[in-house]
Design a protein that fits this description.
- This protein is of the alpha+beta class and 146 residues long.
- The chain has a single domain, classed as 2-Layer Sandwich (Alpha-D-Glucose-1,6-Bisphosphate, Chain A, domain 4), CATH 3.30.530.
- Helix content is 25%, strand content 45%.
- It is globular, with a radius of gyration of 15 Å.
Length: 146
């Protein structure tokens, strides 16, 4: 997915399918995803994958709520976008899981957030970088410890 925002990657010593399953176990996010306090899955597709999910997260400045719509349009991952709300004007993101020849997986995470409240651009970019970095480290740790 090509987008402005933050894109980072990390190598994980686990199979892509394992990491994919960890990333889609949204109910477990409060256990390992930094800042995620609550998850409420409203809708799933015919394969049991989340389609519409609400989150409550600690965003340093304030607690925020947002609802994501998940798409399974990537061959090796998935993407999401936020419904406009009181705290988030726009949000787009994606995970891609690329199997490495030498074993393990490269996980690529892209995120662009436009909050519904005023935040200077440089602070928004720093927050995106911190969110993405923390998420990748948490996903790596959780996937490798299964």
């Amino acid at each position: 997915m090509a987008m402005e925002g933050t894109v980072q990657s990390i190598e994980v010593s686990a199979e892509p399918q394992t990491i994919y399953e960890v990333a889609l176990d949204l109910d477990a996010y409060p256990e390992w995803a930094t800042g995620v306090k609550e998850v409420d899955i409203h809708e799933e597709d015919e394969y049991g994958r989340p389609v519409r999910v609400s989150f409550v997260a600690d965003a340093w400045i304030q607690e925020i709520s947002y609802t994501l719509l998940y798409r399974y349009d990537l061959e090796n991952g998935f993407s999401w976008s936020a419904e406009p709300g009181d705290d988030i004007k726009e949000m787009e993101g994606s995970y891609q899981f690329n199997e490495l020849e030498e074993g393990g997986t490269e996980v690529l995470y892209a995120l662009r957030v436009e909050p519904a409240f005023t935040v200077p651009g440089f602070l928004r970019r720093q927050a995106e970088k911190q969110i993405v970095g923390n998420a990748l480290r948490g996903l790596k740790k959780r996937s490798e410890n299964l």
